[in-house]
Amino acid sequence: MKTQREVHETEYINSISDFTPINNFVICKKVSDNLNARTKAGIYKISPFYNRDQFLPLNADRVFEVAVLPKEFNKDNAEKTSYWNTDLEVKVGDIVISCFLNSLNAKVLITDDGSEYRLISYFALIVALRKEKVICLNGYFLFTRMLEEIKTTLWVPNQKKRNYDTRLGLVEYVGNPVHYYHRDGGGDFDKGINIQRGDKVLFLTSYSLFAPPLENEKFRIMDKDYYYAQRYRLAGKVE
Q1: Which terminus, N or C, of the chain has the lesser number of Cβ atoms within 10 Å?
Q2: How far apart are CA 213 and CA 62, in angstroms?
Q3: CB distance 181 to 139 below 8 Å
Q4: Residue 161 gets which letter from DSSP?
Q5: Hey, how many other C-beta atoms are within 10 angstroms of the C-beta on 153?
Q6: Strand 116-121 relative to strand 84-85: parallel, antiparallel, unpaired?
Q7: For residue 8, what is the enclosing H or E element?
Q8: pLDDT tens readout for residues 163-197
Q9: Are 60 and 104 in contact (CB under 8 A)?
Q10: What distances in angstroms separate CA 107 from CA 17, 21, 97, 102, 220, one per listed residue?
């Protein structure tokens, strides 16, 4: 079945060394293929007969290997693209996880040996994996949900579903703060927000309901289900 995820602007080149990324793009080699991924028993994780476009955020390829870095990293370029000012913290060879939207819309480079690369904006990278080290990029931190059941004295007939408070999270990995955000008039929104691994944090209600997962559990390469956020999404820490 044809899928929108297979429709990319594609350029064929002799070698990846023939292409130099600019405007804070990173050339990333595709190392996962979710469309054709199978279980150990040989069963497709996504059926070829299934509408694969229905859950794009879940099924998009998001794992890459950093192949080429921009020669110059322009922090001020973020202002033109409404992102933020940060540092370049990845190295060639890092395994990175990107946001699904940037991967779906990325320009594709195909070399003579058949390898596929994608131009991924650095601002779309969430995590870099370097050997045993987990590096959160772009001011993100990773957390796991701490679902606490909401107790109530009200009795509702035939209500079997339990209600949970989704605003609490346990900080697992923390990245460096963002220097400056180009949103809501701009500002250093990370200043003074000190969090570390093991902190129990409370999110703004509007964000906690829609916190994005780092990976789809079908294609997970990390040890557990993580969610990601930036510091300005927090309402406070729970002691």
Answers
A1: C
A2: 12
A3: no
A4: P
A5: 4
A6: unpaired
A7: none
A8: 566 788 999 999 999 999 987 778 999 999 999 99
A9: yes
A10: 16, 11, 17, 9, 24
Q: Nearest CA to 25 among 90, 73, 80, 58?
A: 73
Tokens of 123: 């601002």
d(CA 140, CA 136): 6
C-alpha span between 109 and 15 (Å, rounded): 9
CA separation for the pair 140, 124 (Å, rounded): 11
Would the pTM count as exceeding 0.85? Answer: no
pLDDT digits (tens, 9 = 90+) for 70-90: 988 887 767 777 789 999 999
Phi/psi-derived region of residue 151, left when phi > 0, alpha when psi is between -120 and 50, beta in every other case: beta
Give the tokens for residue 88.
């370049």
- Count of structural domains, the chain: 1
Quote the CA–CA distance of 84 and 180 in Å, as a whole number. Answer: 6
Q: Which DSSP string do the residues of 189-202 spell out, in sequence order?
A: TTTT----TT-EEE
